[in-house]
Amino acid sequence: MTTTADLRAVAETYWSAADARDWDAFAATLADEVLYELPQARERIRGKDRYLRFSREHPGARRVRVERVVADGEGRQAAVRTRFTAGAEELHAIHFFVFDAAGRISGITDFWPEPYKPPAGREHLVERY
Q1: Which residue of 7, 77, 106, 109 is most buried, as measured by CB atoms within 10 A?
Q2: What is the pTM of this model?
Q3: Spatial separation of the C-alpha atoms in residues 84 and 101, rounded to whole Å
Q4: Of 120, 124, 116, which is closest to residue 38 (Cα–Cα)?
Q5: What distance in Å separates the CA atoms of residue 76 and residue 68, rounded to the nearest whole number?
Q6: What is the mean pLDDT of the chain?
Q7: Quick check: 13 and 25 in contact, CB under 8 A?
Q8: What is the 3-state secondary structure (H, E, C) of the chain?
Q9: pLDDT confidence of residue 88
């Protein structure tokens, strides 16, 4: 059984790997069938390979720090609050994770501070809804 401590550790590893751009460690936190959703941009990415490519190709330098992780007692979900630094700007974001039976991330929904239009050039990876 996956514990709340396990979920916290996976969520923290996911974000520390993303911050370091350590794509092997990042990939290790993900289930093969991961579903990534960005409601503000109305984008959805299905599958680990596409999501890894999306993450690698994301434009701009940024830093991320986990501020809080709250995980459910059933070992299936976690919510994470992060602080992003993009240039001189600091922003907060909220992320919801769903985990599979092996404790890997199978679903991610990201909420960023403001609505935005998706940048051009990633149409080959996402579906719009």
Answers
A1: 7
A2: 0.85
A3: 30
A4: 116
A5: 17
A6: 90
A7: yes
A8: CCCHHHHHHHHHHHHHHHHHCCHHHHHHCEEEEEEEEECCCCEEEECHHHHHHHHHHCCCCCEEEEEEEEECCCCCEEEEEEEEEECCEEEEEEEEEEECCCCCEEEEEEECCCCCCCCCCCCCCCEEC
A9: 83
68, 81 Cβ separation under 8 angstroms: yes
Categorize the per-residue pLDDT at 1 as very low, low, confident or very high, splitting at 50, 70 and 90.
low
Residue located via tokens 């830093």: 63
* Residue reference for tokens 């051009």: 120
- Measured in whole angstroms, the distance separating CA 69 from the mean position of its chain's CA atoms is 13
Q: Which residues contact 92 (CB under 8 A, 6 or more apart)?
A: 67, 81, 82, 83, 84, 113
Q: How many residues in total does the chain contain?
A: 129
Q: Which residue has the tokens 């923290």?
A: 12
Distance CA 121, CA 73 (A): 40
10-58 per-position pLDDT tens digit: 999 999 999 999 999 999 999 999 999 999 888 999 999 999 999 998 8
